[in-house]
Amino acid sequence: METNYYQKENHTLLEKINIREEHNKIDISKLDKIISIDIKEKTIIVEPRVTMEKIVRFTKYYNLIPKVIPEFKGITVGGT
After folding, report:
1. Element (H or E) spanning 54, and its range?
2. Residue 75's Cα: distance from chain center in Å?
3. Above 60 in pLDDT, residue 14?
4. DSSP-derived secondary structure letter, 9
5. Going by C-beta distance under 8 Å and a sequence separation of 6 or more, which residues neighbour residue 26?
6. Distance in angstroms between the alpha carbons of the first and the last residue of the chain
7. Residue ranges per domain, the chain?
């Protein structure tokens, strides 16, 4: 079982936290939406599971495109 250790504020006590327990998990599977786009400022607000492919398709409609596009089109804003 994997355990994550962290130090308390006084840096002398260590507490064990089981990072695999169900109550420690947050379901982000549905956080895959584009929230807004600001054409003037050239900014976009998205949720963490939005793919770069989806961002490129969406921004192209406004004649915009991200400055950097990862080679892996399935990568999400929050990671793979």
Report:
1. helix 52-60
2. 10
3. no
4. T
5. none
6. 24
7. 3-60
How buried is 49 (Cβ within 10 angstroms: 0-12 exposed, 13-18 middle, 19+ buried)?
Answer: middle
Residue 4 has pLDDT above 60, yes or no: no
Backbone CA torsion sign across 11, 16, 18, 24: negative
Find the length of the chain.
80
- Residue 64, burial from CB neighbour count under 10 angstroms (0-12, 13-18, 19+): middle
pLDDT in tens, 24-76: 678 888 999 999 999 999 999 999 999 999 999 999 999 999 998 888 888 99
Pairwise pLDDT comparison (21 vs 12), residue with the higher score: 21
